[in-house]
């Protein structure tokens, strides 16, 4: 299992679940993350799984600096070790995975919970990446004149009458101003 964590934001960016990980798997995970969230130039902590020549070369070509963590030195990567302990205590020790797919689904569900719901004391007991929730409209949606109903229709206040939707004559405008 490969865990990728943003130590500054306290967010788990990815957990790659596999029976065995190669340097190609690590490169794929990092490529996906760098495409999704622009590549950062600040140091990436380099654990032994990142020491493959292909991974080191690729990181150097895209301008990411690395910090090497000596094997057997967990204090050099305290947040990552703490995260792995929470993952183990809150999920891995409590579950029996009958397939790799089941492990992927349950671990991804836990990762989303960790990022969006679970409070973090270092962040004032807030989650690192809370979900943005838009309030549900109080009134049923009203379609604009001439607009077909569909998944992308706009909500309109039935009491407002924008001039671009309902042509008005000048006499009516003068009467409204009086």
Automatic annotation (TrEMBL):
<feature type="region of interest" description="Disordered">
    <location>
        <begin position="139"/>
        <end position="178"/>
    </location>
</feature>
<dbReference type="Pfam" id="PF13683">
    <property type="entry name" value="rve_3"/>
</dbReference>
<feature type="compositionally biased region" description="Basic and acidic residues">
    <location>
        <begin position="167"/>
        <end position="178"/>
    </location>
</feature>
<dbReference type="InterPro" id="IPR001584">
    <property type="entry name" value="Integrase_cat-core"/>
</dbReference>
<protein>
    <submittedName>
        <fullName>Transposase family protein</fullName>
    </submittedName>
</protein>
<dbReference type="InterPro" id="IPR036397">
    <property type="entry name" value="RNaseH_sf"/>
</dbReference>
<dbReference type="InterPro" id="IPR012337">
    <property type="entry name" value="RNaseH-like_sf"/>
</dbReference>
<feature type="domain" description="Integrase catalytic">
    <location>
        <begin position="1"/>
        <end position="135"/>
    </location>
</feature>
């Amino acid at each position: 299992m490969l865990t990728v964590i943003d130590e500054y934001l306290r967010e788990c960016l990815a957990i790659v679940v596999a029976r065995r990980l190669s340097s190609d798997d690590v490169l794929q995970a990092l490529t996906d993350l760098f495409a999704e969230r622009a590549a950062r130039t600040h140091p990436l902590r380099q654990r032994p799984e990142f020491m493959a020549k292909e991974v080191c070369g690729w990181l150097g070509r895209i301008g990411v600096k690395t910090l090497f963590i000596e094997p057997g030195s967990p204090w050099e990567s305290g947040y990552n070790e703490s995260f792995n302990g929470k993952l183990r205590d809150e999920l891995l020790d409590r579950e029996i995975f009958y397939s790799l797919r089941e492990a992927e689904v349950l671990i991804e569900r836990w990762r989303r919970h960790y990022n969006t719901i679970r409070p973090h004391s270092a962040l004032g007991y807030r989650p690192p990446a809370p979900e943005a929730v838009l309030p549900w409209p109080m009134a049923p949606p009203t379609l604009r004149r001439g607009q077909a109903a569909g998944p992308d229709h706009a909500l309109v206040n039935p009491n407002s009458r924008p001039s671009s939707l309902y042509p008005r004559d000048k006499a009516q405008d003068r009467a409204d101003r009086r």
